[in-house]
């Protein structure tokens, strides 16, 4: 005997309604977990950083974090989900009295980025990292051809990233790199050595593809109009609030 189509329609409607309710509850619950699991100076959770400035927040879930005592975070930093921050080659080491990994004020680290500081890594104020950036002060050595590379003692060199830099998605900053002020690193670039102020670097290995001349401006000249600058007087707190509003609107 054929079943009533209306019965199937009603069942499908109820099922769809239940799915929407469950999905809404799951999303609401996850947002609560994200808020509760975020790390800040007021709510450090299990993490005990050498210092963490006002307005700085590590989004939940965090990546691998160890050596917190030697990690100093400035004010109003935004550290995305699954970001790894490590000081020392492994947990439990005594690294001495001085900071090993230092982030300045207003630093943004995109989702999935790694900052590996086996020796000193310094990121100055107002640097912005896209997602999945990898910064390391350590490299494997391969001097002995008879020993597996992973078993040879690594080499370490300090890394310095100057103020106002933009590091594009998937870029790699290698040991010994020293970036000047307002450097742009293209997505996927592999940077080593010294980069002058106001330079754009791209490629693997990265090379300077554009630079600033005090008389001629950008050389080669920019092909796009200058963006509208952030109005004077806008605070980091207002920028964070605007980003959160845009995120809620997109949901």
From TrEMBL:
Transmembrane segments: none annotated. One of its GO terms (molecular function) is acyltransferase activity. Keywords: Acyltransferase, Repeat, Transferase. It is an enzyme of class 2 (transferase). Its EC number is 2.3.1.-. The keyword Transferase applies. Belongs to the transferase hexapeptide repeat family. This is Acyltransferase. It comes from Streptomyces albidochromogenes. The lineage of its organism: Bacteria, Bacillati, Actinomycetota, Actinomycetes, Kitasatosporales.
């Amino acid at each position: 005997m054929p079943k009533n189509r209306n019965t199937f329609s009603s069942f499908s409607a109820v099922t769809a309604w239940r799915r929407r309710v469950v999905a809404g509850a799951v999303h609401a619950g996850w947002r609560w977990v994200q808020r509760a699991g975020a790390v800040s100076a007021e709510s450090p959770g299990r993490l005990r950083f050498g210092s963490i400035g006002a307005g700085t927040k590590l989004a939940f879930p965090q990546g691998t974090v160890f050596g917190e005592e030697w990690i100093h975070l400035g004010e109003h930093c935004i550290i995305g989900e699954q970001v790894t921050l490590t000081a020392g080659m492994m947990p439990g080491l005594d690294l001495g009295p001085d900071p090993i990994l230092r982030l300045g004020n207003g630093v943004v680290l995109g989702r999935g980025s790694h900052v590996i500081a086996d020796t000193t890594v310094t990121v100055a104020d107002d640097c912005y990292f896209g997602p999945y950036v990898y910064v390391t002060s350590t490299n494997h050595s391969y001097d002995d051809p008879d020993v597996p590379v992973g078993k040879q003692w690594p080499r370490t060199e300090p890394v310095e990233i100057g103020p106002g830099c933009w590091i594009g998605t998937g870029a790699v900053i290698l040991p010994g790199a020293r970036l000047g002020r307002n450097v742009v690193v293209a997505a996927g670039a592999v940077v080593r050595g010294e980069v002058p102020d106001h330079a754009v670097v791209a490629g693997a290995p990265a090379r300077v593809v554009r630079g600033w001349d005090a008389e001629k401006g950008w050389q080669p000249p920019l092909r796009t109009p200058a963006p509208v600058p952030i109005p004077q007087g806008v605070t980091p707190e207002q920028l964070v609030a605007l980003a959160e509003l845009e995120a809620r609107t997109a949901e």
